[in-house]
Design a protein that fits this description.
The protein has one domain: Neuraminidase (6 Propeller), CATH 2.120.10. The chain is 5% helix and 41% strand. It contains two helices and 27 strands. The strands form six sheets. A five-stranded mixed beta sheet has the order 2-1-27-26-25. Strands 15, 16, 17, 18 and 19 form a five-stranded antiparallel beta sheet that branches. Strands 20, 21, 22, 23 and 24 form a five-stranded antiparallel beta sheet that branches. The longest helix is centred in the N-terminal third of the chain and has 10 residues.
Length: 320
């Protein structure tokens, strides 16, 4: 298995270490070893959006719940080189189950719920600098919460989710920033919400999701900035999961976190040689987390250690 490192363990692991009378490194379990870093600032969160804003070397984590009430407007930014968190400009409104996408040096906020697990929005906003202001862009054709979204071939693809009436979505749509417009994409083979999404080159993967929790994966190719054909079946996961995240690490599509009927799940899987490999386990399994790729590292930030409303500031890093 790959080596997993704790980066900013947060309060839960510290509490466990104190209760057990062991070191923080021991409390993490498995093959983990530690490195100094700052924990995510503010209270623990779940159902956050996350992306790597490469232009500024920042991991962006936004929105999410800190309790069972309304979601936050927080935008938290981690300087990867310095290992320091700071606050960015508040989101345009409260969001949970939204998506962040970095495209052409800008950070986009796509969809999400506005009323705590309800009120899916079609709003899309763009931020061009960490100290800038959010600017509204063209809305998606369908309101989407618990969606997946990813940059591919100079475009943004929004996938599945839940609409404003609470119905699960099979539809997709893609955004062309040169004309500030969304266009319908091909439907997936089935509905997917709480879905993990990643792109490798010009191919997008829709990974797992619900309902019920799924182990199926579909892929869609782009050519010249547009979908090229229909969704096709891809290799199945080793574990059914929803509420997880996905990212492409040094050319390898990986997925982590999420939940199944028994609770949150630890296995991290990567697509290698035409099949999904279980390459490592999370020290603290979480759902509703940010899964972000930075070079050859997979960053797993925040999320809920238990299904439902549970909250963490923890941040694990996997060398893939």
């Amino acid at each position: 298995m790959a080596k997993l490192r704790w980066c900013a363990r947060g309060a839960l692991v510290g509490l466990l270490a104190a209760v057990l009378g062991v070191s923080a490194a021991s409390a993490g379990g498995g093959e983990a070893d530690t490195r100094p870093s700052e924990p995510m600032i503010g209270p623990g969160k779940t159902e956050v959006a996350g992306a790597y804003w490469a232009r500024y070397g920042l991991i962006a984590v936004g929105g999410g719940f800190v309790d069972e009430g309304a979601a936050t407007r927080d935008l938290l930014l981690l300087d990867v080189d310095a290992g320091q968190w700071s606050r960015g400009p508040d989101l345009p409104g409260r969001r949970d189950h939204a998506a962040f996408v970095a495209l052409d040096g800008d950070l986009y906020l796509v969809g999400g719920f506005t009323a705590g697990l309800a009120g899916a929005t079609a709003e899309v906003w763009r931020l061009d600098a960490p100290d800038g202001e959010w600017v509204e862009r063209a809305s998606t054709g369908t309101p989407r919460g618990a969606l997946g979204a990813v940059a591919v071939d100079g475009r943004i693809l929004a996938i599945g989710g839940v609409d404003a009436s609470g119905s699960d979505l099979v539809s997709t749509e893609w955004y062309d920033p040169t004309v500030d417009a969304w266009k319908p994409g091909p439907d997936m083979s089935r509905t997917r919400q709480h879905v993990g999404v990643a792109a490798r080159g010009r191919t997008v993967y829709a990974i797992g999701g619900r309902s019920p929790n799924l182990d199926s994966v579909e892929r869609l190719r782009f050519r010249s900035g547009e979908p090229d054909g229909e969704w096709e079946q891809a290799p199945r996961l080793g574990f059914s999961r929803s509420g997880h995240g996905a990212a492409t690490v040094d050319g390898t599509v990986c997925t982590a976190g999420g939940e199944e009927e028994e609770g949150t799940i630890a296995p991290i899987e990567c697509l290698r040689g035409g099949r999904w490999e279980h390459i490592a386990d999370m020290a603290e399994p979480r759902h509703g987390l940010a899964v972000v790729a930075v070079d050859d590292e997979l960053h797993l930030v925040s999320g809920g250690p238990e299904p439902g409303f549970a909250f963490s500031v923890d941040h694990e890093v996997l060398d893939v």
